[in-house]
Amino acid sequence: MMRICPNPMPWHDVFERLTAYAQRHQCVPSVPPSPLILAGWAYSNDTEKLRRWEETVTWATRNGCPDFVAVLDEDFYCVDEPTSYTVGPLGGPMYRPWDFEAKERPSPEQLAAHFTTLMSRWQEIVGPELGRATRPLAFSGVKVRRLLVQADAAVSPPWGGWSHLSAVESERRLFTRFRASVNRAIAPQEVDHVDFITGGHAEHGAPGDSPQTARP
Question: Which of 86, 117, 11 shows the shortest CA–CA distance to 54?
Answer without folding.
Answer: 11
